[in-house]
TrEMBL record, chain A:
Membrane-topology descriptor: Multi-pass membrane protein
Entry protein name: Cytochrome ubiquinol oxidase subunit I
Domain of life: Bacteria
Compartment(s) where it occurs, according to its Swiss-Prot or TrEMBL record: Cell membrane
Xref: InterPro entries: Cyt-d_ubiquinol_oxidase_su_1
GO biological process, one term: aerobic electron transport chain
Similarity comment: Belongs to the cytochrome ubiquinol oxidase subunit 1 family.
TM stretches of this protein: 20-41, 53-71, 91-115, 127-150, 184-205, 217-238, 258-282, 294-312, 339-362
Keywords tagged on the record: Cell membrane, Electron transport, Heme, Iron, Membrane, Metal-binding, Transmembrane, Transmembrane helix, Transport
Molecular-function annotations in GO: electron transfer activity; heme binding; metal ion binding; oxidoreductase activity, acting on diphenols and related substances as donors, oxygen as acceptor
UniProtKB/TrEMBL annotation, chain B:
Residues passing through the membrane, by range: 6-31, 43-70, 76-93, 113-135, 141-158, 217-242, 254-274
Record-linked PANTHER family: CYTOCHROME BD2 SUBUNIT II
InterPro entries named in the record: Cyt-d_oxidase_su2
MF GO annotations: electron transfer activity; oxidoreductase activity, acting on diphenols and related substances as donors, oxygen as acceptor
Entry protein name: Cytochrome d ubiquinol oxidase subunit II
Length: 392, 290
C-alpha cells in the first residue's frame, strides 16, 4: 500500500468506528429523553429505572463516540491539509459551527445531565437531556451538510485557485443533504430501537425477574425501530434522484456497488421482519419466548447496514474528495511519509480498536446484569451521622 | 470581523488551558494526591463533572481553526504531526480511563484505569508543551521542545494541585479518613475535634475555613492564569500571522451569524457547570459515574 492508500485506510477505519458509535448515540438519545419525560411527568418508578439503565448503555456507547470523533476532527489537518487549503473557506464553516454550536453545548449539557442527578431540580435535569438530544441532531445536520458539500460542492465558486462561499443557503439546501439527513436519522432510530429490542428479548428469554421493565422496553424498541426502518428505507430510495443527477455512475465501482446492494438487502429484511412480523404482534411478543432469539439475532444488522451505507456513499465518490473539483490524491498533505502515516494508523486503530472491543463488552455486561446494575443516577447515600459530637 | 474572530479564538485556547488544564494537572497528580483507591475515587469524583465541559474547549479550538483559519489549519496540524498524534492518543487514553474505571468491578480494573488517567494526562501536558514550543520556534521540533514540555507539565501540575485544594479542601486522603472516623464511634476526643475541624472546613461551616475556600478560589484563578500564560504569549506573538490566514469576509459572516447568537448559551452552560459542581461536602453523598 502506498501513502495515499494508508491515509485512506486510516480515515476509513476511524470513520467507520466513529459512525458505529454515533449511530447508536443518535438512536438512543431521544429514547432516553422520552423515558425521562415519562418519569418526570408520570412519576412511575419503572420509567426512572428505564431512564437510568438505557441511559447508562447510551453513555458507555457515547464514550467511544467522543474519542473516535476527536481523531476525525484532527485527521483533516494531519492527512488531508490539501482539503482545507483548497476548500476550507467553505467546508470549514459547517465543521466550525458543528463544534461550537452543537458539540460544545452537547458535551457541556451531557456533563450536567450525568453528574446532575439529585443535584439539580428535576425539570432542569430533564431539560439537559433534551438539549443533549437536540444538539446531537444539530451536530448530525452540520456534519451531513459538510459531507454533502464534498458530494456536490453547491454554493461555492473557484476564485484564485480556491473555493469560496458564493451562496451559503445553497450549502444548507444541498440536494445531497436533504434526503440523506432523514435517511441517517431513520437508520439511527432503527439502530437504537434494535438494541433496546435485542437486549430486552435477551432478558425476557432468560426469564428475567424484571418482566414489566423489559416488556415495556421491548415494545418501545419495536415501535421506534418501525419508525426508523420506514424513514431509512423511504429516504434511502429518495436519494437516488439527486445521486443520479449529481453523481451518475456513483455505484459503478465494485466496492460502492457491493455496499449499496447488501445495505438494501439488510434494509428489506429488517423492514419485513420489524414492520410486518414484530409490529403486528407487539402485544404478545414479550411473552413469546420462542421469538426472542430471532429478535436478538437482528441486533447487529442495523450496524452492518450503517457501515455498508457509509461505504457506498464514500467509496462512490472516488477518486474525488470534493466531487469534480479536488481529488483525494491532491488533497493529501504534501510531505506525508509512509513512516508518519503508518505510525499514526497503527496508534489510532490499535488504541481505538481495543477500546471499541472493551466498550462493547461493557455494554454486553450491563445488558446481562440488568437494571439493578445501573449506577447512573443512583440514590444519594444518607448524610453521615455526626457521632463524635453525640459521644462528647 | 477578523479581529473579533481572533479574539474568540484566543478566548477558546486560553479557556482550554485555564479550565481543562486543571483536569489535566489533577490527572497527572492522581497517584500522588490519592495514595489509596478511596482517595483516588474521591479525586476523580470531584473532578469528573468538569471534564466534559473542559475538553470541549479544545474541540472548539480545532473547529475554529478549521473554519476561521483554513489556510493555517493544515499547516499547523501537519507541521506538528508527531505531537498531534501523541496528544490525541494521550487524550483518548485519559478519557477511556475516566469513562471505564467504574464500569466493572475489582480493584485491579479501577487501579489500572487510574494509571491510564495519569499516563494520558502526562501525555497531554508534555505533548502540549512540546507543541507550543514548536509553534513558537516556527513549526520546527527542536530539543527546546523538551524543555517546553517539562515547563508546561510543571505549570499544569501546579494548576491541578490548586484545583484539588479548591475541590477537596480537606485533602483527598484527609477527608476520607475523617469520614470513616465520624462513623466509627470509639474515637478519642482529640481526634473528634480534629475531624470536626476538617469536616467543618470542608463544609464551610466554620468562619476560618470558609475564608480558606475563598483563598482556594483565588489561588485557583491565579494558577489558571499561569497555566494559560504560555498559550496567551504564543497567541500574542502569532496574531499577525493568524490574521493573514483568516478566511474571507463571507465565511466569517456566516460563522458569526450562526455561532454568535449561541455564545451566551455556551458561556452560561459553562458557568452553570462550575456553580453546580463546585466544592461542597454534600457531593460526597452522590455515587459518581466516573
Amino acid at each position: 500500500m502506498d501513502v495515499l492508500d494508508l491515509a485512506r485506510a486510516q480515515f476509513a477505519v476511524t470513520g467507520s468506528l466513529h459512525f458505529l458509535f454515533v449511530v447508536l448515540t443518535l438512536g438512543l438519545a431521544p429514547l432516553v429523553a422520552v423515558m425521562q419525560t415519562l418519569w418526570t411527568f408520570g412519576g412511575k418508578p419503572v420509567h426512572e429505572r428505564m431512564t437510568r439503565f438505557w441511559g447508562q448503555i447510551y453513555l458507555i456507547n457515547y464514550a467511544l463516540g467522543i474519542v473516535t470523533g476527536l481523531v476525525m476532527e484532527f485527521q483533516f489537518g494531519l492527512s488531508w491539509s490539501g482539503l482545507s487549503h483548497y476548500a476550507g473557506d467553505v467546508f470549514g464553516a459547517p465543521l466550525a459551527i458543528e463544534t461550537l454550536v452543537a458539540f460544545f453545548l452537547e458535551s457541556t449539557f451531557l456533563g450536567l445531565w450525568i453528574f446532575g442527578w439529585h443535584r439539580m431540580p428535576r425539570r432542569l435535569h430533564l431539560a439537559c437531556i433534551w438539549i443533549v438530544t437536540l444538539t446531537a441532531y444539530v451536530s448530525a445536520f452540520w456534519i451531513m451538510a459538510a459531507n454533502a458539500f464534498l458530494q456536490n460542492p453547491a454554493g461555492a465558486v473557484e476564485r484564485g485557485g480556491r473555493l469560496v462561499v458564493e451562496d451559503f443557503g445553497a450549502v444548507l439546501t444541498n440536494p445531497m443533504l436533504a434526503m440523506a439527513l432523514p435517511h441517517v436519522a431513520g437508520a439511527a432510530l432503527l439502530t437504537g430501537g434494535s438494541v433496546i429490542m435485542g437486549a430486552s428479548a435477551y432478558q425476557l428469554f432468560r426469564r428475567t425477574a424484571e418482566q414489566e421493565f423489559f416488556t415495556k422496553s421491548l415494545r418501545l424498541g419495536v415501535s421506534v425501530a418501525s419508525i426508523g426502518v420506514v424513514l431509512a428505507v423511504g429516504f434511502g430510495y429518495a436519494q437516488f434522484g439527486p445521486i443520479g443527477e449529481f453523481q451518475p455512475g456513483k455505484f459503478d465501482s465494485p466496492l460502492a456497488g457491493l455496499g449499496l446492494g447488501f445495505m438494501i438487502l439488510i434494509g428489506y429484511l429488517l423492514q419485513l421482519v420489524v414492520l410486518f412480523v414484530l409490529l403486528p404482534v407487539i402485544r404478545w411478543l414479550p411473552r413469546w419466548r420462542w421469538a426472542h432469539p430471532i429478535v436478538m439475532l437482528m441486533t447487529p444488522l442495523p450496524f452492518l447496514a450503517a457501515i455498508l451505507g457509509w461505504l457506498a456513499r464514500e467509496a462512490g465518490r472516488q477518486p474525488w474528495l470534493v466531487y469534480g473539483r479536488l481529488t483525494v490524491a491532491d488533497a493529501m498533505s504534501p510531505g506525508l511519509t509512509p513512516a508518519m502515516i503508518t505510525t499514526s494508523l497503527v496508534a489510532f486503530t490499535g488504541v481505538l480498536g481495543l477500546l471499541a472491543v472493551v466498550d462493547y463488552l461493557l455494554i454486553a455486561r450491563l445488558v446481562r446484569r440488568g437494571p439493578a446494575a445501573a449506577t447512573l443516577g443512583a440514590a444519594p447515600l444518607p448524610p453521615p451521622e455526626r457521632t463524635p459530637a453525640l459521644s462528647l | 470581523m477578523d479581529i473579533l474572530w481572533t479574539v474568540l479564538f484566543a478566548v477558546l485556547l486560553i479557556g482550554y488551558f485555564a479550565l481543562e488544564g486543571a483536569n489535566i494537572g489533577l490527572g497527572m497528580l492522581l497517584p500522588a494526591l490519592g495514595r489509596t483507591q478511596e482517595g483516588r475515587d474521591r479525586i476523580v469524583a470531584a473532578m469528573a463533572p468538569f471534564v466534559l465541559a473542559g475538553e470541549v474547549w479544545l474541540v472548539a479550538v480545532a473547529g475554529t481553526l478549521f473554519g476561521v483559519y483554513p489556510q493555517a489549519e493544515g499547516e499547523v496540524l501537519f507541521g506538528l504531526y508527531p505531537l498531534v498524534v501523541c496528544l490525541l492518543v494521550s487524550w483518548i487514553v485519559r478519557d477511556a480511563g475516566l469513562w471505564f474505571r467504574r464500569r466493572a468491578d475489582g480493584p485491579a480494573w479501577r487501579a489500572g484505569w487510574d494509571r491510564m488517567i495519569c499516563l494520558g494526562s502526562w501525555g497531554l501536558a508534555l505533548s502540549w508543551g512540546a507543541a507550543l514550543t514548536a509553534l513558537a520556534t516556527g513549526l520546527s521540533i527542536t530539543p527546546a521542545a523538551l524543555a517546553g514540555a517539562a515547563a508546561l507539565a510543571a505549570l499544569l501540575a501546579f494548576h491541578g494541585r490548586a484545583f484539588a485544594s479548591w475541590l477537596l479542601p480537606g485533602g483527598a486522603a484527609g477527608t476520607v479518613a475523617t469520614g470513616t472516623t465520624t462513623v466509627a464511634t470509639g474515637t478519642t476526643e482529640a481526634a473528634g475535634e480534629l475531624s470536626g475541624a476538617v469536616l467543618g472546613g470542608a463544609a464551610g461551616r466554620l468562619p476560618g475555613p470558609a475564608a480558606g475556600a475563598g483563598r482556594g478560589a483565588a489561588a485557583l484563578a491565579g494558577t489558571a492564569c499561569l497555566a494559560a500564560a504560555p498559550a496567551a504569549a504564543l497567541l500574542a506573538g502569532t496574531a499577525p500571522w493568524l490574521l493573514e490566514h483568516t478566511a474571507p469576509a463571507d465565511t466569517l459572516n456566516v460563522l458569526s451569524l450562526m455561532i454568535l447568537p449561541c455564545a451566551p448559551l455556551m458561556a452560561g452552560a459553562q458557568v452553570w457547570v462550575w456553580r453546580t459542581f463546585g466544592p461542597r461536602r454534600a457531593a460526597d453523598r452522590f455515587p459518581s459515574f466516573f
